Amino acid sequence: MIWSNSGTPTVADEPVSDLGDVASAATLITTTTTPDEETWLRFILVQEGRYLFVVYTLADTSEGATIADDLAQYLVDEGEEQGDEAIHVAEGGSTGGLWGFMPENGNELLGGLVPVSDELLYAAP
Predict the structure, then answer these.
(1) 54-81, pLDDT tens digit by residue?
(2) Does residue 65 form part of some domain?
(3) What is the pTM of this model?
(4) Does 44 share its domain with 82?
(5) What is the DSSP letter of 82?
(6) Please, which residues have CB within 8 angstroms of residue 33's CB and are 6 or more apart in sequence?
(7) What letters, b where the CB count within 10 A reaches 16 and e where it falls short, cover 70-92?
(8) Rounded to an integer, what distance in angstroms lies between the CA atom of residue 39 and that of residue 27?
(9) Where are the beta strands (DSSP E) in 5-92?
(10) Which of 38, 45, 76, 94 could form a disulfide with 99 if both were Cys (CB 3.0 to 4.6 A apart)?
(11) How many domains does the chain have?
(12) Residues 89/45/75/93 CA torsion (nearest 10 deg)
């Protein structure tokens, strides 16, 4: 979906090729306080086997929002479940289990970003 405060909302289907079994993207563009400022909210949804990944970024440029695409590619190509025992750290940096899909702190993909929190959104088995 592409949206701007200056016009009518437009829905755009953005399939993403060469990513997982099935992948698509949605981008919300909104003009903020002035016509020169934009905010980009980009969602990437990827199904790879039995996993469904939802990655999103919020940025001030279209280029900045593409980290969602890069992270989704990492999850599919390099991420993997790490054993049965997950160690949850609320302040960020959880490890093991499904957390193994995430890049480690300091990975260049993250561009200097560091986790500030991790949240469990599913019931523990």
Answers:
(1) 988 888 887 888 888 999 999 999 999 8
(2) no
(3) 0.77
(4) no
(5) E
(6) none
(7) bbbbbbbeebeebeeebeeeeee
(8) 10
(9) 14-15, 22-31, 38-48, 51-59, 82-87
(10) 94
(11) 2
(12) -10
Residue 108 C-beta-side C-alpha neighbours within 13 Å: 0
Which tops the pLDDT comparison, 105 or 79?
79
> pLDDT by residue (tens digit) across 1-19?
444 455 444 445 677 888 9
Cβ atoms of residues 26 and 43 within 8 Å: yes
90: which 2 tokens? 């609320």
Q: Please choose, from the candidates 100, 41, 48, the residue with its C-alpha nearest in 3D space to the C-alpha of residue 65.
A: 41
pLDDT band per the 50, 70, 90 thresholds, residue 104 = confident
Residue 66 located in a structural domain: no
b (16+ CB within 10 A) / e for 16-54? beebbeebebbbbbeeeeeeeebebbbbbbbebeeeebe
Q: Return the H-helix or E-strand segment holding 72.
A: helix 67-77
